[in-house]
From TrEMBL:
Residues 32-142 form the Ig-like domain. PROSITE patterns: IG_LIKE. It comes from Amphimedon queenslandica (Sponge). Pfam families: Ig_3. InterPro entries: Ig-like_dom, Ig-like_dom_sf, Ig-like_fold, Ig_sub. This is Ig-like domain-containing protein.
Amino acid sequence: MLSNISTADAGNYTCSASYLAMGESAWGIIEPNTNTRTINLIIYSSVSTPANTVIVEEGNDATLSCLFTGFLPINYKINWSGLIPSNAIIANHENTQYKTQHGSSSTRPAVQSIFIIKSAKVADSGLYTCSMSGTTLRKTILLMVVTQKTSWQVELE
């Protein structure tokens, strides 16, 4: 059993089981036997988003999300970059000056980071990137904030 693995543990492992008894039985002669299997341990991680483009109407909250999965570092730091407005909040719904989410001291198979721009404005439109320190994981999301247009329909009799 492997425990406390790290990226340095990736590679091939060989497992052998031996049966060393000898003699005769009702089924015939029993001879020593060894079975060997090779296991390839792959350490992976990835980042995904529910949408590569998020479109919201001006005045509504814009919610951007990144999901980091796989082998993630302990005490990670998730950064959001882009045109960061002052009314943005991250994950724990508290205003943070640098828009960073810090990890725990234990590993988890997945970590989600949610970035919210309250009452988004057209000027908030642009590219926003989430990234995790200690990895090459990063994902960019396009935010488009649109204005509401009133549509008029005229019926002629």
